[in-house]
Write a structure and sequence with these properties.
single chain, 470 residues, alpha/beta, Rossmann fold, Serine Threonine Protein Phosphatase 5, Tetratricopeptide repeat, 2 domains, three-stranded antiparallel beta sheet, 15 strands
């Protein structure tokens, strides 16, 4: 490097440092050292888990803890907004019995033509979220037809929504667009809002001066090569977007804001940066996680919940589904949201933190079964006995675990309870019959086979397997 180039580089570095100071850079937290030592002694979760101590908090499923700043009741409505992980959150909360306003929408003719209209609600960057929120709550700011790119006769793309081609007249698309914004506006009425941050690799329309949700159509890029930019958001970009999101919500709500924020664990599919996608994804997630930490400072009714940590710290065998290392297993999502609800859900004024829900228990034992964690399955079922004994799926997994541990009598009893709970399903009864052979219970096998013939006459092929033995 020449002397002049080196001086220029040093000048740029100094200017960057000065700009950081001017932005008001400050520690996230600052207390006296003596107070820090006192505080850490009262924190039971201060030490990172090891195999010898608190290992169950990491293996097989990480269970990071968060401290609720508010409570949620069964009657509260919820609105989830953000990346595709928000759709997982909606599903889990809906199955848990809460009313999820972000799942209640009517998108008319265009919405009915889509395979999954809910995907139009995916917002991959904080700026995408802010755009739609502002247009929904301050409708006069909506740019109208300008945000719908024409790529052919009655053929359009809306890069604020997704890459789906809209083969409709512009009038039909705009009517659909306002239905969509009506659905988005329900966020102002929800009791609880959940925001999931996705990525920081974004696209910018220089003509309209707005960030896009997805890449612009290639036809537009070729036709107007100077119009669009690829941008990677900085820490300050994300933080400013979060602050704008918060200001919009508080400005248009009549109810006190209760906001849960998180970072989606779903990684980038690919990167547009000149680097390994693994490195690009690490930056994308970490810079948003860091910005959220500062965003939380001084905000009443705003909490972080660690879904990102739940997934990325867990065993990959149980964390991911579809065999693609990207989509979070529904079992893991159920467990995450059960953890959130048990932390936040209030009944009769007291926060519920007792046993797992049925959904979470089913999910947990299934995940442990993938890892052959038989003793852990048995322990978990025992700790949640009242719930386990009401669900045949849990009992079936528990019975397999008990058999692998050579606790045959307990496995047999477990299967009997499962068969009683689900008399129209053959699995539990058939597994009881199979257990009779290693347990040398030939008379009991005959009685169970007779019961099997009465209840499942079309499964004679199974019974034939035992004719010689009994």
């Amino acid at each position: 490097m020449t002397g002049e180039a080196e001086r220029n580089a040093q000048g740029q570095a100094a200017a960057g440092a000065q700009a950081g100071r001017q932005r008001g850079a400050r520690p996230i937290e600052r207390i006296l050292a003596a107070d820090a030592f006192v505080r850490t002694r009262g924190n039971e979760l201060r030490r990172y888990p090891s195999p010898e101590r608190d290992g169950e908090r990491l293996y097989p499923l990480a269970t990071p803890s968060s401290r609720p700043g508010f409570s949620i009741s069964r009657s509260d409505t919820v609105y989830a907004i953000g990346s595709c992980f928000a759709r997982n959150v909606e599903r889990a909360l809906g199955e848990a019995g809460l009313r999820v306003l972000s799942r209640e929408f009517d998108l008319g003719e265009i919405g009915a033509s889509l395979d999954d209209g809910a995907n139009f609600f995916n917002k991959y960057s904080i700026h995408s979220v802010v755009n739609e929120l502002r247009w929904a709550l301050e409708r006069e700011t909506f740019p109208g037809a300008d945000v719908v790119y024409r790529i052919g006769p009655d053929r359009h793309v809306d890069s604020q929504l997704g890459m789906a081609r809209l083969d409709y007249p512009i009038e039909t698309i705009l009517a659909f667009r306002h239905r969509y914004l009506d659905a988005m506006a329900a966020v102002a009425e929800a009791d609880v809002v959940i925001l999931t941050l996705g990525y920081v690799e974004t696209w910018f329309d220089r003509t309209l001066g707005i960030y896009l949700n997805v890449a612009p159509p290639m036809q537009m890029v070729k036709a107007q090569p100077e119009r669009f930019e690829f941008r990677v958001l900085s820490y300050q970009d994300v933080l400013e977007g979060l602050e704008e999101f918060h200001a919009l919500l508080t400005r248009h709500r009549t109810k006190p804001l209760r906001l849960l924020v998180t970072v989606s664990p779903v990684p980038l599919l690919y990167t547009f940066r000149e680097m390994d996608v693994l490195v690009a994804n690490a930056y994308s997630k970490s810079v948003q996680r860091a910005a959220l930490e500062e965003f939380l400072i001084g905000k009443t009714g705003v909490d972080y919940f660690p879904s990102y940590e739940f997934v990325t710290l867990s065993n990959p065998t149980v964390a991911w589904s579809r065999g693609d290392y990207r989509h979070v297993s529904p079992d893991v999502v159920n467990r995450i949201m059960d953890n959130v609800l048990r932390s936040y859900l209030a009944e009769g004024g007291e926060t519920v933190t007792t046993t797992l829900s049925r959904e979470a228990l089913v999910s947990s034992v299934r995940m442990m079964a993938k890892l052959d964690s038989h003793a852990e399955i048995v322990d978990l079922a025992a700790a949640n006995r009242d719930v386990a004994d009401t669900d045949p799926d849990v009992l079936l997994v528990e019975a397999v675990a008990l058999r692998r541990l050579e606790r045959l009598d307990e496995s047999f009893a477990c299967l009997a309870r499962a068969a009683a709970l689900a008399p129209d399903r053959p699995e539990a009864l058939e597994r009881q019959i199979m257990l009779c052979r290693p347990m040398r219970r030939k008379p009991e096998a005959r009685a169970l086979l007779d019961a099997h013939a009465r209840r499942f006459p079309d499964r004679a092929e199974f019974r034939e397997r035992f004719k010689g033995w009994v």
